Each structure stands twice: as C-alpha cells, then as structure tokens.
C-alpha cells in the first residue's frame, strides 16, 4: 500500500479486515515493524478519536509519533499554484509538505471541507497536495471528501457484529444544528459498496450525496421503509451537496429513536462520533444494548494499525 | 489503587510516601511496568508542572503518553445528563470519556472550578463523569475540588525536609489579583489531616474553606500567631467559599515576607506554583535558602510516579 | 558543550559538521546515548521545521521529548527582575525555568524578537533567563538575536554541496510583506565568518545588520555585483535594525529570480523557510534544480542531532 486515501487503495478489503482483527488479538506483535520510523500527524481541524487512535496504533507498532495542530503550532499554508504570497499565508504547501516528508516516514493529514467553495472541496486540495509534494506515504485522517479510516473501522465493526453473511446496512441522515461535511457518508457509501452487505441510504429530499460515492446504492426518502429488517443502522448528519454546504432540513422526524429501531431486525446502532444526543439520536437508543458506538470507536485503533502495518511493510528498504 | 482522586484513595499514606522516595532514588527501576500501557492526559485548563511532571513520571515507568488540550485540540464536551445537544457542545462526556477509555489504560484529567456556580463546582462534575464513564482508572490532575498529586507532593516534601517527627505546618492565605479555586488549599488540608503534622490554617475572615476539607484543623485569623514556631509555611491564595468565587480581600498585610518568616522556627517556605512574586510572597523569601519551592515542584514527578505505579500494578491482568 | 546559543559555543566547527554528517549516515547508531534522558521543547512562537526536526533528532538519540506551546498550554511568564506580579503574568521565569529544569535534562527554547523594543530584544531576554535559571543545558530554537541550529544546518549544507574548497556565499535581503526579525541573517553571518567561505552580504540601504554579527563580512548595496560568480545564494528578508523593526523597503527589484541566478556560478539557492513564493524568490528559482531548500531543511535533523549528542556526552555523570 502506497497511500491510504480511499477504498481504491485497498486491493483486498477482506484481507485488510482480517489483518485488523488479527492486530486486535495481538496488539504488540509487530512492534519491531515501526522501529526507527516516525509518523507525523497533521491536524488542520479538531480531532479526538482520530488523533488518539492513530497515535496509539502507531505506538503499538513501535513507531514514534509527532503530532502537530498545523494552524496553531505552525504557519498558514498556501495551496494555490503560482501564488504571489503577499498575504497571510507564510508557507507554500510545496515546501511545507516536502519538509515534513524529510522528517516523517508516513504522514497523516486531516483537513475538512470548508463547505463554501464546492469546486475547491471537490478537488480535495490539501490531501492531494500532500500526496503530490510530501514524497512519503500519506494517510487520510479525513479529507474534504472522505474519511477512510472511519470507513474501514465501520467495515471491521460490521464484520464483528453481523449475525448473517450479508447483513442489511442502512445509512440514515439525521438532523443537526450545524452544517457538516459529506466526508463520512461519502466514504461509508464507497466502502459499503465494496463490502459484502445489502446497503441502503435514506435521507430527506435535497440531501442526495454525490453519485461518485453512492454508486449503485439504493436510496429512499422513506426512513421507516429503510429501517425495516435492517441489521445495522448507521446514523449521520451531512449538509446538502446540491445546495452546497446548506442545511435544507432540520426535521426532527428524522432523529433515530427507539420506536424506529423496533422496525429493524434488532439492528445494532452505529455512529462515527461525536454525536449530538437527542438531536441525531435519542438517549434511549445510545444507552441501549444495541448501541455499539463505543466498541466501534475502539476499533479505530485496529483499522489504523492494519493500514500503518501495510504501509510500513511497503516502505522502500523493507 | 483504582482511581486517584483524593487522600481517601490512599489506604496507607506513609507507604505511598516511601514508595515515592524509593522511585526518586531509582527513577528507571520499574520501566517494565508500563510497557505497552498508555496514559492519556486531558487538559481542560492550562498546565505546566502537572503536564510535564506526570508525562515524565509515566515515561520513567515505560508508558506511552498522549497529551490533549481538550478544548483546543478536540470538541467541547456536554456534561449534562439528558441534554438536547443543539448548542455549541459537539460531544457528550458519556461518549467522550468512554472513547478515550478505549485508547488509554489510565486517564489523567484536569478541570478547574468555574467559580461561578457553587453547586456545580461542588459536584466536581468533569472528573466525576470521567470516573463514571471512562471504564479505566482516572487520576486527578486537579479537579474543581482537589489537587491530590500536589498534596501528595507536599507530604513527600515535608517528609524530606522535616527536622522533627511532628512538624508544625501552616497553610496561610495570601493576596492575589485574580479569583482562584479552593482546590489546592482544600486538598492540602485534607492530606495534612491524615499526615503526622501539627496543622494550622490562617486566613482573613470570609475565607473559611469548606469544613469537609479542613475537618479538625485549627483555624486562626491571626497570621502572626500562626507563624510562631512554624516548621513549614505553605502560602496560597484562594477565593471565598462562602461568597462563592469572590475576592473579599486583597489585603497586602497578608503577603508573606522576611519579617514574618522570622517568627517561625526557621520554617521552610512552600508554594504549589505558579506564584505571583511580591504579591503572594516577597522576593526576599522566595530567593532565600528557606524557600524549597523548586525541589517541591521537582517532587511532582515522584508523587505521580508512585501513583501511576500503584495503579499499573492494580490493572486487570497484572 | 554546555549550552548551544551561538557559534561561540562551538569549539571546533569543522568537527561538529563532520559529526552531523556522520549522524546522517547512521541516524540510529547512538540511540543508547539518550536513554532515560528527556528533552523539553518550549515554544513561545510558531514552529514547523524546528519543532519536528529537533524532536526527530532527539528520538533518533533515544531521548524522550516533551513539547510545550508555552503561552497556549501554560501560563504567561514574567521576565522582569523584582516585578510586582499584579498583572497578567502568572509565573516568573525564575520559577518557570527552574521547574522545567527539574523535569528535563536539556531544554530547547524558541522566543522571537518582539521588534518593538530594541534594547529588550538586544538583551535576548527569554533565552538568557532560561540559561540563568533552568540549571540544565539550553539549546536555542531561535532567540531574539540568533538561530544557531539553522546556521549550523546551513554550514552542513554548504559543506555537502560545495564544489570548491572555499565557495563564494551571498546572503541577500529580499522583500517581504511583514516585518521579520534579524535572527537568521545575524546568525548566518556569524557562522559564515567562522566557516571557510568567501562571504558577502547584499541589501538595500537602511538594512544594515548589527556589526556584532556581520563582523568582517563584505557588504554591498549592489545585489547584481554580489551575485556575480556566487556558488551559494542565501535569500532572507529582515526588518531594519537602525529604524528598529521597520520595513524601510519592499522593493520588488530585490526578489531573487532566474535572471539574477544567471549571474552566478550555477549557484545553489538556499533559504531557511518558510519562504514567500514570488515575493522573496520566484517559482522559477525555487522549482529549479539549483534550489536545495528541501534537503537544506532535511539537514535540520542532523544539525540538531549533532548538537544534542555533544550536550548528552557532556552531561554530568556521563
């Protein structure tokens, strides 16, 4: 594995999931692999799970980790080719990425969608520039378009909790007070389309995701119909892709509650977290035995560890 | 030891002090204990001594350490049970704490009193919620009510510097330009009441601490009387507990100076730091040979190391 | 080596450069040296290269590293002797430095010139106070006056790329939208004066540096004349030293471009980074094969590693 940016970087998803579950059984068995290797984690945005789980995964593999909150620890990065840098950005990503690549064997980058400039977000500028200029493998810690470590985690978690070979998995939109990026649902859709599941998406009209990610997935505006017989309910808010970055509904009828969960096949409830309680989903669901959001978050370590292990074993000289 | 939140978590204070002094003699002798164990340090407030000394202690024990400034690195945490999370808090502590507990074997938490809502501060909400939801041992790095790592340090330091079996220890209030929490004097009182010392508290009227912490301690409004024959002077400012969080006096007559120190039995001067020079205490005292504030701060490492060692040896599977 | 603050702390520059190049060949050969030793890195200002390269260097030597953004993680530090600390500074550097010295075997400090108070900047207050009070070796990560790890890096890089025993090295001022400190050009001048190079400085009138640093170096206001036959062009902006901290010219005629580079002896282009593209230097130069700014930045690791190794081997008990 060279970079880890999307499901396209995974030649064999089922093998990667097995690897992650093997790491979970034996977290410190590959501690020699990361010896004298350094992982840089660059955050252009806040992070809790990703920050801690990726750091933990790297340390389990014996790596050193250097964490940087880019904008508060360092300088603003100019992304524009050919820019006359007379403004507030002190360094161009051409130098920034290449320099960090001098100090790190692998770089993780988090940079969210700005949600104001659709075209710019769709180019996934920051992570793409790091891939172009850093000269070392890049791991997405959530980009404008995707959150692949989360999606791999989700596949692993479904694999652990499924009670039939091909479970029904529902991605449901839910209300939220703020406009959120589409990265998680985009990415989840992309990975579900590769995984061996019966995948369906439900959301209000106007919340259609980019078909580049949803592909062949079934889509319905009828949340209850989607929930019927489901084995996994995956809730997530996102802002509109058509009316880019806008909140076109906050309809509380879309909040996941116990009544809706009764329509399912005793479905497990999943969410990438952080989650707004009693807005996205009611306490009664989150606090029920069907909620697996905490072990799901715990699996972030094994997803990251499987990915880092793959990249470490592909490094030149290994 | 399960958690470390107050002196009540210490079954045998004298044994813990001995352990700390043994760690000081042989800092790296237990490096195997923390192998493959991770300490998470969460700061809701600024920190210098606690941050560095606890990190150092954990590294001396062979642990990995992950440090997070919660509000600037991550998301605001909702503490209220049943909250409809439509505001500025993105994550509930139920998830936040439980998720961090998935990545860390021990979690240290610092969260100061807000000093505006007495009842809320008295519930020591943040640390209590972490104890409730994290699922792993919690170490207080100073909560709304207590600063037990500081107090253990103080007991260790008094043990090192005392010249008689039962020294006279004076906790004296001193003026300060800002309203400060009562955590340090609360905690110091609680620990002194368990330690083998003759303990007396002096402060202006209106600065009475909660009797839950001061217990059987003698209290006087006459600072000079308190200083007479003292072996240790421990200075600290705090805001009023009765007129909660208010500054009811800035009387410079309470500043510790050389003249007052002459009333003592060549007392050692202690302070938890940071200290406002020439407000809380004059340069002439801080710069005198009787000031032991720097070795006192140095002892923070051994206090933390003794506590972490105790918890590490109590972890399931150990 | 006790401290590393300027070229004066280096008894044999040529030996230190050899040591750095030896570390580059064998980065992990001295991992035992830093065993159980802790490096504290304190940033009063933003940092990318210095932060990551020094951390990496210390880890290569087996050290633990604790990084702190002083003002955002901790308390404001009072620097003034005898201050009555009734204002916004919670801790005096006397305590701050001494306490950090209790937790760290070596401390790195970055604190830029404020550019408003010439006298204060010239006293290099922050780093001087740490030297005075920390009680352990101090490494400058750029002070008000100097950036010695950068300058050592520059000497190493010139050593690697030079094609004649005594190359011609040009330090050229270049325009910039913001007022910048003189630390880098000061320090570069000081080190070039010791290194075996033919050194010349060029800048517009009004940008004369303090002769304490430029010493015997030739200075010309004619940039083109300076460039003629040069082997290395080192570009850098700085604000005026005479009209302290002022921008007295933004003349774009001083921007380094391909045409000027043609006057040189196929000179290598160097810059300490971050660099303002198309303001300090044109893309055509930075993106040309003659630009060595990235490997130059990479050499920051080996400069730091050589310095830390020297200090580690001089620590008491070694």
UniProtKB/TrEMBL annotation, chains A, B, C:
Q: Which pathway does it take part in?
A: Amino-acid biosynthesis; L-arginine biosynthesis
Which biological process annotations from GO are given for this protein? citrulline biosynthetic process; L-arginine biosynthetic process via ornithine
Domain named Aspartate/ornithine carbamoyltransferase Asp/Orn-binding is located at 184-309
Keywords of the record, alphabetical order, are: Amino-acid biosynthesis, Arginine biosynthesis, Transferase
Residue ranges occupied by any Aspartate/ornithine carbamoyltransferase carbamoyl-P binding domain in the UniProt entry? 2-160
The record's SUPFAM superfamilies line, in alphabetical order, gives: Aspartate/ornithine carbamoyltransferase
Question: What role is this protein assigned?
Answer: Catalyzes the transfer of the carbamoyl group from carbamoyl phosphate to the delta-amino group of N(2)-succinyl-L-ornithine to produce N(2)-succinyl-L-citrulline. Is essential for arginine biosynthesis.
Q: What is this protein called?
A: N-succinylornithine carbamoyltransferase
